[in-house]
Amino acid sequence: MSDLSAVDHGQEAGFGDYVQLLKPRVMSLVVFTAMVGLIVAPVSVHPFVAFTAILFIALGGGASGALNMWYDADIDRVMRRTQSRPVPAGRVGAGEALGLGLALSVLSCLMLGLAANWFAGAFLAFTIFFYVVVYTMWLKRRTPQNIVIGGAAGAFPPMIGWAVATGGVSVESVLMFALIFMWTPPHFWALALFMKDDYSRAGVPMLTVTHGRAATRKHILVYTLLLAPFPVALALTSIGGPVTLVTALVLNALFIRGALRISRRDDAAAEADGYRAEKAFFRFSLAYLFLHFGALLVEASLAPFGLGGW
């Protein structure tokens, strides 16, 4: 856990440091998937309500990021990938990160409840709790299943967006959740394959550390195969259609091919070429998710013209 006094006050924080504290890259995924969940829902939402709802969902995602950086500052300091973050680098005090995270958590959940409905506000509060307490404080440092179970936190945003519009949960929103939930392990394990030393130094029991890279490669393939049916099932629901089905089939084929390629490699070959295949798989995994949700948007935009859906 973070040492609240471990900060170099010789460095002043700039506006960009506080933005970085909110993990804007992660927030972009939260915003995009929540927006898709809201737009494809069968209930129309006033544009102003939709805008404010997405804004508060984004703030909730940022609050989670700030609280994560507060708690994980000790391990962030020893990982090359994270040591330049505002708290471990000493530009923002851990107490500041904690205060900002708590304030944004309360503000975002209350305002989402007022702007949309209290079910959506409570769902956002649960998501923040799950990411900070269940994943960051409990799972991350204790089990190699950290990213498997903890990945649920990143999968909730489209369900929250759907709840903003409908006030509830449906098969469609659960399948959007399942798509992200099953995608998360192969996505992060691919990263761990070429960042293993960081996790070892920090004492984080990522699968590459506890079971080795060979086992991780097999897990990536298994989870990629388990993932494949979910986007197809989503394409066959009321929010899907030909565009989403073709997208699912093509992206699944490419993703499985990448996972097969990784599973057949050994550490010597991967290290010799700088983990080229693993890095390519990781980059494609980002496109995989964004393109699936982008296809849902295309389907929704075609619906008024009688072209989208089944």
From TrEMBL:
Q: What membrane topology is annotated for this entry?
A: Multi-pass membrane protein
Query: Which biological pathway?
Result: Porphyrin-containing compound metabolism; heme O biosynthesis; heme O from protoheme: step 1/1
**TM ranges:** 26-45, 51-71, 92-113, 119-139, 146-168, 174-194, 220-237, 243-260, 281-307
Reactions mediated catalytically = heme b + (2E,6E)-farnesyl diphosphate + H2O = Fe(II)-heme o + diphosphate
Q: Which InterPro entries match?
A: Protohaem_IX_farnesylTrfase, UbiA_prenyltransferase, UbiA_prenylTrfase_CS, UbiA_sf
Q: Which GO terms describe its molecular function?
A: protoheme IX farnesyltransferase activity
Q: Where in the cell is it found?
A: Cell membrane
Keywords, in A-Z order: Cell membrane, Heme biosynthesis, Membrane, Transferase, Transmembrane, Transmembrane helix
The record's listing under CDD domains reads:
PT_UbiA_Cox10
> What EC designation does it have?
2.5.1.141
Query: Could you confirm whether the keyword Transmembrane helix appears in this record?
Result: yes
PANTHER family linked: 4-HYDROXYBENZOATE SOLANESYLTRANSFERASE, PROTOHEME IX FARNESYLTRANSFERASE, MITOCHONDRIAL
Question: Extra notes?
Answer: Carbon 2 of the heme B porphyrin ring is defined according to the Fischer nomenclature.
Q: What does this protein do?
A: Converts heme B (protoheme IX) to heme O by substitution of the vinyl group on carbon 2 of heme B porphyrin ring with a hydroxyethyl farnesyl side group.
Quaternary state and interactors: Interacts with CtaA.
Protein family per UniProt: Belongs to the UbiA prenyltransferase family. Protoheme IX farnesyltransferase subfamily.
Report what the protein is called: Protoheme IX farnesyltransferase
Native organism: Defluviimonas salinarum
Gene (UniProt)? cyoE
